[in-house]
Amino acid sequence: MKINKEKIIAGLFFVNGMIVVISLAGIFILLLTNSLPAFKDIKLTEFLFTAEWNPTSYVKEKYGILSMVMSTFMVTLGALLIAIPLGIGTAAYLSDVASHRVRETAKPIVEILAGIPSVVIGFLGIVMVGPLIARAAGLSNGLNAINGSILLAVMALPTIVSLTEDALGSVPKSYTEASLALGGNPWQTLIRVKIPAASSGILAACMLGMGRAIGETMTVLMATGNAPAFPHKFTDSVRTLTASIAIELGEVPYFTTHYHALFAIGLVLFIITFIINLIADIVLHRYEQKVRM
Amino acid sequence: MKFIVNIILCFALLCAWTQTGYADMLQIKGSDTLINLVQRLAEVYMEKNPGKFIAVTGGGSGTGISALINGKCDIADASRGMKAKEVDQAASRGVTAKRVVIAMDGLSVIVHPDNTVKKFTIDELGKIFRGEVTNWSELGGKDASITLYGRQSNSGTFVFFQEQVLKGDYSAKMNRMNGNAQIVEAVKNDSSGIGYVGVGYVKDASGLTVAEVAARAGADYASPLDKYDVKSGKYPIARPLNQYVNGSPSGDVRAFIAFELSAEGQNIVEEEGFFQIPDEYTELNKKLGF
Q: CA of A22: how far to CAs of A28, A33, A186, A274, in Å?
């Protein structure tokens, strides 16, 4: 009876694991089969390497995603530039400097930040962050890549802080003690011992934060202006891959070139996130081997 | 185990409930320009007819028409006419779209109050939104580059403005905003901004200048806030606001549309800042028996 129960539970976990694998494969196949028909009418090189996207053009339909790819990378890069230093700093403070009481209050608050709906953040981008950027930079409006970056940084922060804090917390106590015993002060211990020792976890935290930033839709849709022109600087309006799908999928006639092209954008997004995860995985793996040696 | 069974039961109940909910609830979907007006009409109608339920949602005219074609709504709000492509598509799915006009809109061009350029010809507006004129000084204003605020391609207003004013493609630099309200908000805060919205969104919007528009150079300028100019067509970008239904309307759909077109309904139209239907469209509505 006992063995049976264990078998059932093991089987259940196996099924759970398989569900994840199957859904991933299913999503990939769905995206692939729905996007392939688009390339009957669009050249792959035009799709990937031209910057004009205008499927509902008055004159001639254009399907080039380069400016959207650029937009997505710009807001993601901007978000990471803000969120990574801030996130690691916050995590280091929480794990090493803050008193027990501060930590126990501050950490849940950081995690609540993750629960704020993205429309609310987008709304703040329109009414607060946008006008502030406009005033600070002397622009006529604040609907641009900086606005999107700041908002996405806020959304990526909880992930980065929380996971980095966990990673720092799981560094063996003997490392810290050894460093202190050799005469290192707390600052040196943190910077030269603990952070390098936890770097695999920190990298994973940053990668997850990046994933959050790339996939986020509503916030950037509301706060970046969505102009389809190719962005040249951070004060330009941008239109990300996700925003384009969200804007156009609602009204697109089914099974047209435009419809399939939107799925192709989804496929591109999928491939980008897949590559990022793959790189993160390889780096982590290499790092782990080094530690073992 | 019992817990799981309970959860499944709850789901089943919820599904059953939403199913019946859909059955006698009138679904209206579409134009962002019309949403406040139709919501208001639905509220008054429901108050007068207890037991009737109407759900009004937005998403843009394109989204509404697409929902009508796919059988997902009873009435599609549209601030533009259906395109030939859409009519064909509807026909291929057995949907015969019939049009009713419920109000008139003077599509309003708005600028910041500090802007000295307050009058435009259609030709100038076309140049501005196509991106051929990029600085206010070219129009006699201050030296500042023009920020364009428009809608997204699912919007009927986007399509109408493109067909009537641009006759070409929008500048790629135009910001694509989510709805009328967002454009109003953006132009209020941007001293070099220009945008276009339904007149219902500017009737008491302080902190904005509603521009006067002339059909061509030399013609009289007219304001969308003037009801006679909009009705007579002197204001060049006036447009009918439509609802599309599948086949000749009957039952609850007919009752609601009849209310919209009644004197009481048309008073609400004016209260919401839009205008009553001119005679040419009353004739059109008569063909469907209203």
A: 10, 16, 48, 16
A59 inside 8 A of chain B by CB:
yes
Please give chain A's pLDDT, 293 residues, in tens.
567 888 999 999 999 999 999 999 999 999 999 999 999 999 999 999 999 999 888 888 899 999 999 999 999 999 999 999 999 999 999 998 999 999 999 989 998 998 999 999 999 998 899 999 999 998 889 999 999 999 999 999 999 999 999 899 888 999 999 999 999 999 999 999 999 998 888 988 898 889 889 999 999 999 999 999 999 999 999 999 999 999 888 778 778 899 999 999 999 999 998 888 888 778 777 766 665 54
> The tokens of B148 are what?
């364009």
Distance from the Cα of A140 to chain B's closest Cα (Å) equals: 5
Residue of A nearest to B68 (CA): A251
pTM, 2 dp: 0.85
Residue type (1 letter), B80: R
B275 phi, psi to nearest 5 deg: -120, 155
State whether A253 and B172 contact (CB < 8 Å). Answer: no
Tokens of A292: 């073992």
CB B63 within 8 A of CB B29: yes
Q: Are residues A251 and B60, on separate chains, in Cβ contact within 8 Å?
A: yes
Instruction: Name the residue type at position B94.
Output: G
**CB contact (8 A) between residue A248 and residue B154:** yes
Best probe of the B interface among A54, A61, A140, A240, by most B CBs < 10 A, is A140
Q: Do A251 and B172 touch (CB under 8 A)?
A: no
For A:122-141, CB contacts with B below 8 A are 126-127, 130-131, 134, 140-141
